[in-house]
Amino acid sequence: MQTTKFKGKLIPLIFLAPTLLVLLVFLYYPVIQTFRLSTYRVAFLGLKKQFIGLDNFLDLAQDPGYMQTLRSTALITVAIVIGGMALSLAIAMLANRDIRGASIYRVLLIWPYALSPAVAGVIWLFMFSPGFGAVNYLTFLVTGSELNWLGNPRLAVLLIIMASIWKNLGYNIVFYIAALQNVNTEVLEAASIDGAGAWKRFWSVTFALISPMTFFLLITNIIYSFFNIFGMIDLVTKGGPLNSTNVMIYNLYRDGFEYYKTGLAAAQSVILFVAVIILTVIQFRTSGRRVHYGG
């Protein structure tokens, strides 16, 4: 196999220059500005700035409302990641079977991921709205009463969790089906001959062989639950009721674009950035050890 070698050091830099320029303008510069703004108290529309050091972070640490936001974020994240991945794997196992029309079923399972967050949010809002929502109508027919999904804090959290899992289900299923189709069937047959039951074959063989994909989806689902549920919350619950669904990314948005607390919003962005990095590093050092690569 032949490899291309550049004669000088300038030509590689010329080819990399457009990419580096885009990264500098749209990634590195905004990140640096966010860290810088987190140490300032910024007046409306940035007309005046006052350096306050770490006071923004101290204010957040002493704010009971922000502590509730952290708890809500942790609860919703854990539920979305664990519930979404478990449900996706179960569905992928069923969809991976060699049955008639399997390709049609797989497409139908994947399509929710193709919807924009706005469309998905409107669908769930109409289904669970009091008075005219389809779910409440069915509930009334069965029980004679309606559930206040948008007014009860616990039901609102459950609604956001279910909607977010549904929205990301197709993404997980695609990767799990791809992983399951690459599982060596000879290993499963050998385990069956040795007397391993269905659960033993799944846990000790199938799940172990798809562990790289599970580890990848674990990271992407955590990122999804931190950032990509913003649209669903904004359209369905607006962070309520009683701030029960006010997660970190939505609280950041409200402080930055509704209350114009730019410095405080920047501090929250830094906290969110650091939290994702810490969680990712922890998972690479713990879960990553149980991931088995190779045939």
CATH class: Mainly Alpha
Strand order of the largest sheet: 1-2
Into which percent range does the helicity of residues fall?
Answer: over 70%
Low-confidence stretches: none
> Rg, please?
24 Å
* CATH H-level superfamily title: MetI-like
Distance from N terminus to C terminus (CA atoms, Å) equals: 25 Å
Tell me about the biggest sheet?
Answer: 2 strands, antiparallel
* Whole-number count of domains: 1
Strand content: under 5%
Protein structure class:
mainly alpha
Structure commentary:
By secondary structure, the protein is mainly α. The chain has one domain (59-290): MetI-like (MetI-like fold, Orthogonal Bundle), CATH 1.10.3720. Helix content is 72%, strand content 2%. It is built from 13 helices and 2 strands, in the order αββαααααααααααα. The chain has helices spanning 10-37, 55-61, 64-95, 102-114, 117-128, 134-143, 153-181, 185-193, 198-209, 211-228, 230-236, 248-258, 262-285, and strands at residues 40-42, 49-51. A two-stranded antiparallel ribbon has the order 1-2. Strand 1 (40-42) and strand 2 (49-51) form a beta hairpin. Helix 1 packs across helix 13 (262-285). The two termini are 25 Å apart. The model has no long low-confidence stretch (mean pLDDT 86).
Short overview:
The chain has 295 residues and is mostly helical. The chain contains 13 helices and two strands; from the N terminus they run αββαααααααααααα.
Key attributes of the depicted protein:
single chain; 295 residues; mainly alpha; MetI-like fold; two-stranded antiparallel ribbon; 2% strand
